[in-house]
Amino acid sequence: MKKLVLFLTIIFMTMSYGQEIKQIPQINVNGEGKVKVAPDQVCISATVETKGTNVKEVKKQNDEKIDAVLKFIKKMNIPTADFKTKQVALNPQYDYDKKKTNYNATQTIEIVLKDLTKYDEVMEGLVQQGINRLDRVTFESSKIKQYETEARKLAIKDAKAKAEDYVSVLGQKVGKAITISDNTQVYHPQPMYATMRMKESSDAMGASNETLAIGEIDITANVSVSFILD
């Protein structure tokens, strides 16, 4: 009997608590904060890809091209900490029609170029030294964390301003925030040819002779906020 009384008491308290929470007047709004900044660095992911029927020769050619690429990068006075080998692969590919095995060697170098005035020269030089595939070119800001913080603060201010607009005609005031959800997604601009495969000819990067209009990075924060109404 005592257990039954205790059980009913807990159920009653839980129901009362739930009803009390539901009765709290509140408003749910979304807020957006946006900061526009000019990129001050670019991340380049570039690959040397070599194919052939002789595995030793394929690897040798690939290594020689990578060696030339690394020497060029150092010649451009890019700090050692700003470039690294990202991926190395040597794979057999069997041709069922010709009944023979070909080999595909790839090495990927990732470079963070912090002097954008060197961009065209670096891109042209990479291709001339053997790079024949650009996997990714992303323009970034070295102060991204700082700008993300600014965007989040602006998003919260925007949410509160919206809430105040809605309740101003009701004679109520916006109180404390009770829940905040971050719905932010970060986007980095990329040039159109960032993922294209290039020819090995010297004119493969003709587009890189032109100055890119990279514009600005939109750093946007989106939040959902629930405010108590006083």
Can you describe this structure in just a few lines?
The protein is an alpha+beta fold and 230 residues long. Helices cover 33% and strands 35% of the residues. The chain is elongated.
> Tell me, what is the CATH class of the largest domain?
Alpha Beta
- CATH fold label of the largest domain: Alpha-Beta Plaits
For the record, the CATH architecture of the largest domain stands as 2-Layer Sandwich
Strand content: 35-45%
Biggest sheet character:
4 strands, antiparallel
Question: Helix proportion of residues, in percent?
Answer: 25-40%
What are the segments in which pLDDT stays under 50 over at least 5 consecutive residues? Answer: 192-209
| Domains, number | 2
Q: Could you tell me the number of beta strands?
A: 7
Query: Using only CA atoms, what is the Rg?
Result: 29 Å
Please trace the helix and strand order, writing H or E for each element. HEEHEEHEHEE
Principal-axes geometry comes out as elongated
CATH superfamily of the largest domain: Protein of unknown function (DUF541), domain 2
What would the average pLDDT be, to the nearest integer?
83
Helix/strand/pairing category: alpha+beta
Distance between the termini: 44 Å
The count of helical stretches stands at: 4
Spatial ordering of strands, largest sheet = 3-4-2-5
